[in-house]
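1st attempt posting a full record on here, be nice pls
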Amino acid sequence: MEKLMIAGRQDEIAILNKALASDEAEFIAVYGRRRVGKTYLVKAFFHDHICFEMVGIFNAELKEQLSNFARSLGKASGAGIIPQTPASWQEAFSQLHVWLESPALKEKRGKKVVFFDELPWLNTPRSRFLPALENFWNSYGAAKRDLALVVCGSAASWMIQNVVRSRGGLHNRLTRQIRLLPFTLSETEQFLKLKKIKLTRMQIIELYMAFGGVPYYLKQAEPGLSAAQIIDHVCFTKDGSLRNEYDQLYASLFEESHYHSKIVGLLAKTRKGLTRNELLHNTGISSGGTATKILSELEESGFIDSFVPFGKQAKDALFRLSDEFTRFHFDWIKPLGKRSPGSGHWLSLQNQPKKNTWAGFTFEALCLKHVPKIKESLGIASVETTESSWRYIPEKDSSGKGAQIDLLIDRKDNTINLCEIKFTGAQFVIDARYAAELHSKSTMFRTITGTRKNIFLTFITPFGVAKNKYATELVVNEVTMEGLF
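the predicted structure (as tokens):
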């Protein structure tokens, strides 16, 4: 089998390298949203160490899953003979045990990897899959120094509840875990280069704002096309591969996915984020265990995140939509209904005010995902910080103006970077009106919060800030798109 190339994923590769080199049995859980590259990472890294692999079948009955196991075991043996379908998962794992102890594998050096992909789909009702897996590991696998059991699942919440934080037979059995997130901008650039896709960094940012760093989505890009052409073809033509992705994405990950869609649909309409109570009130989802489960599933899968605004407490936490493709779907694909506008649709929107507004908001969200890179660019990578936003709304009977700060980096060295995030196709120009607004905002922040820390006004914009008297007076730091990579 040809060895696959891996773009990025340096932290994850380091974890897997330690597992491969260890002289103990390894039980590794890899989880993350659909299409994020879990299967590819495992197969590309472990390559010829894999001696058995099986992929769960979505919505299949127990009998079909067991039949699939038999076919997978037959393929692993290379004998061209499909073993008898086991009657239960206990019997299936007994067959796997026999295969792992067979003469054919005794001569195999290094770690022997057993890989179960889409593990949650194997745990069908009344199948007793989890107890059988627990018994296999506890009675056999955990004592095999040359064995690595790798389990993957896109239903992140299920993986955490039943494997990572299991209170049953797998309690404290994991040796390593990887929560696989979408690519960063830097990893996206590496991935596209491997695929021979040549785009400028500005175009990579534009593609990222529509697709996020999801490898499967980025894989749809074709050489010789601009970012706008790629988005146009993949999302708006009749046969575009992401035209109907949204419904398939959520339905495959979550039971009762209409609740999850209500949450992300509401968050797609707001910039500031919403509290838990606001979300539940506006979606009609009752408070309690169901609401907690839905929010946890969305957050663990990387579709939403939560944060505490500057100066607030944990109970004031806001949820916001963090998945770029979901936002793109609600802003641009869903309004079209079943109609496919065809080639040229996205290209025709490039200079529309709505598109510019969307780009500004989405670029802000992108920057919030790349705070480690922003800190590195500012030379404060090793400084302990807390990131948040800040918003002031004056009393209704007040004549004062409100203010909002996109990103605050509150540092342990008695300094706060007050960040303004602007998406422009050229250097950003601060004029007299905007300079007055920035001065007012900074003063208002200091007065209302009562902070005595240094305040550094910091701009994050693709091409930097144009040098003029206002920029010289106000801007202390700036981060360009190069700093985001």
